[in-house]
Design brief:
Mn(2+) binds at residues 112, 135, 137, 139, 216, 218. This protein is an alpha/beta fold and 290 residues long. It has helices spanning 44-51, 84-100, 115-125, 154-162, 177-186, 196-202, 238-250, 272-288; strands spanning 24-29, 58-59, 64-65, 71-76, 104-109, 130-134, 167-172, 189-192, 210-216, 254-261.
């Protein structure tokens, strides 16, 4: 992906064409090569961009408008179809360039494995990095049916890279017994089922620290986000997820990167899932860019 030319397709609402002045770079990671149930999240970034056009540029939640900040939509990273290792390497290379330019990376998946290479690069710049993970699934497996490159493994890899005590998980309601055991042994701050209240309790512990925020859209109950590959009943509602993003935004942590993953448009003809994801990205932009 080149940074010296504007992306020619659909762009996220109110995106700037001036990369130099941009405080953040939005990019898509259209990969679903390792999903365990239903594919289709590679189409997520494009549909989120299209759905962003329904949004207002002003957020009454944060009393801020998109015109008050500057961000650049670099389009989708070209990934090697069906090849996880080459695709992850391409994401690392791209994110490294974003960070070299002193911009905050804001990614759109794609399956959750795409978070792993982004965190690898962010961790190189911020060795005291912490990760806030909001998801229905723990993603702490070592492998899925023998495959270590799986959307069920990114948080295991991340916890081994940055240390389990620097990982904060919220909303988890689908996991193996082995994942629960590992979370306890690794010192992961593991908060099943709920998001907002335990998040509020944890944020003071992260005061002043660089934090990466990763949100799997399936943290939401399928009633609010049916367009995802691995639905999990019993989730939170959209209002709580928005409030959680706002709680992070209003805290004094330093968000140095973020993503939203696992939007699979084919399973939601109403497009409500993509609209929710677009609104979450708007709130991340307005809340995380200081």
């Amino acid at each position: 992906m080149r940074f010296d030319e504007a992306y020619s397709g659909n762009v996220f609402i109110a995106s700037s064409t001036d990369l130099d002045k941009a405080q953040a770079v939005i990019f898509g990671m259209p990969m679903d090569w390792t999903v365990s149930f239903r594919p289709g999240s590679r189409f997520g970034p494009a549909r989120i961009r299209e759905s962003s056009l329904v949004l207002e540029e002003y957020s009454h939640y944060l009393d801020r408008e998109l015109q008050e900040i500057s961000y650049y939509d670099a389009g989708d990273i070209p990934l090697a179809f069906g090849n996880p290792e080459r695709s992850l390497a391409s994401i690392r290379e791209f994110v490294s360039k974003v960070l070299d330019l002193k911009k905050m990376p804001l990614g759109m998946g794609g399956e959750h494995l795409v978070t792993w290479p982004v965190v690898q690069e962010v961790f190189k710049r911020y060795p005291d990095l912490a990760v806030i993970h909001i998801d229905a699934h723990a993603d702490l497996r070592t492998d899925y049916e023998g495959e270590e490159y799986s959307h069920a493994t990114p948080l295991r890899k991340i916890s081994q890279l940055i240390g389990g005590s620097n990982v904060y998980q919220f909303g988890i309601r689908s996991m193996t017994r082995e994942e629960v055991t590992y979370a306890k042994e690794a010192g992961i701050h593991f908060h099943p089922f709920d998001v907002l209240e335990p998040l509020k309790e944890c944020l003071p512990k992260l005061s002043g620290r660089p934090v990466y925020v990763t949100v799997d859209i399936d943290a939401l109950d399928p009633a609010f986000a049916p367009g995802t590959g691995t639905q999990e009943p019993g989730g939170i509602d959209t209002k709580e997820l928005l409030a959680s993003i706002h709680a992070i935004a209003r805290s004094d942590i330093k968000v140095v990167g973020a993503d939203i993953v696992e939007v699979a448009p084919a399973y939601d003809p109403t497009e409500q899932t993509a609209v929710v994801a677009a609104k979450l990205i708007r709130e991340m932009l307005l809340g995380f860019i200081k």
